[in-house]
Amino acid sequence: MSSRLKTFQSLGIDAYQLREASVNLDSNQESEWPIIESQVSNCKKCSLHKGRNNTVFGDGNRNSDWFFIGEAPGKDEDLEGKPFIGRAGRLLTEVIFSMGLSRQDVFIANILKCRPPDNRDPKPEEVKKCFSYLEKQIELVNPKVIVAVGRIAAHSLLGIDLPMGKLRGKIHGFGPSEIPTFIIYHPAYLLRSPSKKKKVWEDLQLVNDFLKDDS
Question: Is residue 24 part of a domain?
């Protein structure tokens, strides 16, 4: 067990090292971004490429401490090629702004880089084939924290199937370096259940507290 996980547990915080990266990743070099972006834009690993208008690579500050991860692009994202720009995306932007940040201060990406038909949930085989792109992005950004946006993103990152009530409010560890990972409700869910916005605020305060203690 790492010293970081021991520290979390000594504070009474549930922390897990649940999923390790499945590919060997190179050093963090700016020159690698065009390579991975080209690989994504030309990817035909699964059938989703047949129905896409654009791949949705990711957007934001490539040197950010914050890495937000959603599940997959929707209709608006597929048309524009950018993550979280629809109605739910605008709410996520407001959530980020409430933390004193802008979209330009964080990096945002998705588990999948192509839109599933009718915005259905990603299939396990699609996640498996696309996941190495996200792993590479995480390695290049090297964030201090990851924020998984929604249940499906959390399940895909952590490799566990737990309800949101047991995922949020805790610090999880992603990958061999155990990047602290926090779970928040998806903004699409908040649009249907606005009373849950308070819980998202509480979860992001947990992230802020962690970053202050880690600085």
Answer: no
Distance, CA of 201 to CA of 197 (rounded, Å)? 6
42 assigned to some structural domain: yes
109 phi and psi angles, rounded to 5 deg: -150, 180
CATH of the domain at 48: 3.40.470.10
Pairing label, strands 107-110, 59-60: antiparallel
User: 134 to each of 5, 43, 49, 57, 213, how far by Cα in Å?
Assistant: 23, 13, 17, 9, 27
Nearest Cα neighbor of 147 from 72, 90, 208 is 208
Domain count, the chain: 1
pTM score:
0.86
The predicted-structure confidence for 162-181, as pLDDT tens digits, reads as follows 999 999 999 999 999 999 99
CA angle 194, 71, 175 (to 5 degrees): 115
Please give the structure tokens belonging to residue 213: 């203690």
pLDDT 10s digits, 83-140? 999 999 999 999 999 999 999 999 999 999 999 999 999 999 999 999 999 999 999 9
What is the Cα Rg of the chain in Å?
Answer: 16
Distances 171 to 15, 69, 165 between C-alpha atoms, Å: 5, 15, 13
Closest CA to 103 of 112, 92, 114, 111: 92
